[in-house]
Every structure is written in structure tokens, then in C-alpha cells.
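quick one, 42 residues, struct below
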Amino acid sequence: MASRRKFSDKYKREAVRMATQPGVTKSQIAYELGITTNLLGR
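---
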């Protein structure tokens, strides 16, 4: 069983900042961050 990845607060804040940019999809952001779209939504 794989262990859970832990993301820093800085990483999370950056993901939120990216997600609030106009004209960028969640899929694009998730790809850039190397995570799934579902994980980004959570």
C-alpha cells in the first residue's frame, strides 16, 4: 500500500492561487502540479 503524500502549506496556497486565475482549467493546473484533478478539488 502506498503511503500518503504530504503537501506543505506553501504548496497548497500556490495551488489555490493558480486555481483562482481566470482562463485556466483545473485539469491544466493539476497536470502542472503533478496531481490528479480530484485531489486538486479536495
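DSSP finds three helices and no strands in the chain.
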